[in-house]
Amino acid sequence: MKIVARFIVLLILLITLPYAYEIYNKRSFYHYLVNDANGSEVKLDQYKDKVVLVVNVASECGYTPQFLKLQQIYDRYKDKGFVVLGFPSNSFGSEPRNGKEILVFCNDTYLVDFPIFEKIAVKGEYQAPLYAFLTGEKTNSKFPGPIRWNFEKFLIDRKGKIMARFSSDVEPDHPALIEGIEKALDGR
Q1: If you compute the radius of gyration of the chain from its CA atoms, what whole number of angstroms results?
Q2: Which helix (H) or strand (E) holds 41?
Q3: 23 lies in some domain
Q4: Most buried of 11, 98, 109, 123, CB within 10 angstroms?
Q5: Per-residue pLDDT, 3
Q6: 89 forms bridges with which residues in the sheet?
Q7: What is the CATH number of the domain that holds 128?
């Protein structure tokens, strides 16, 4: 009897595995949970129907002044359904601060009022699941590859799919990034 039961369980697993894999690969940005800078859980599905720019940020990096332009584009488009989400990371040794210190730094230095989240790993062994999704480390991302430095940007459309990826040296006000935001806001 035990052999028959095990065979049935194995058969069910074999039949459902391809479907489970397909469902996993159809995950979107909205399937993830993260913590804000104060440690409270945030479901990313609260950003459904918004265009999202996800940025791995750091307070002691040559690209740190991009906070100013990130805030400017957030201010410019937030009333149209756009949001910037900052994910601090010390993956490159440029973020020594903790959550509350990061918030104070961002607010005091760059007047940032877009959401800043808990410090995470964006690459390596302890890579956050959201960044595994974004970079295709464990999924079939359209824009695969490891994060190369701080301030890489992922543009997410209103349906939770990755539209574009921009390297650190692409300023937030770069025409290609602005065009991508505007297309996403218009549903194109």
Answers
A1: 19
A2: strand 41-43
A3: no
A4: 123
A5: 80
A6: 120
A7: 3.40.30.10
Structure tokens at 7: 């065979």
Domain annotation covers residue 83: yes
Q: Which residues pair with 56 in a beta bridge?
A: 87
d(CA 105, CA 117): 13
Reduced to 3 states, what is the DSSP secondary structure of residue 152? coil
Query: Domain range spanning residue 176?
Result: 29-186
User: Is 19 a member of any domain?
Assistant: no
Instruction: Name, in order, each residue with C-beta under 8 angstroms of 133's C-beta and a sequence gap of 6 or more.
Output: 27, 29, 31, 32, 139, 141
Distances 120 to 75, 124, 147, 153, 176 between C-alpha atoms, Å: 25, 11, 13, 15, 27
Q: What is the dihedral of CA 47, 53, 54, 58, to 10 degrees?
A: -130
Q: What is the pTM of this model?
A: 0.85
**53, 61, 103, 162: which one is catalytic?**
61
Q: Give the span between the Cα atoms of 77 and 96, in whole angstroms.
A: 31
Would you state the structure tokens that stand for residue 153, as one six-digit string?
């940007």
- Give residue-wise pLDDT tens across range 29-79: 899 999 999 999 999 999 999 999 999 999 999 999 999 999 999 999 999
Q: Any catalytic annotation for residue 106?
A: no
C-beta separation of 84 from 166 below 8 A: no
**In whole numbers, what is the pLDDT of the chain averaged over residues?**
89
**What total of structural domains would you count in the chain?**
1
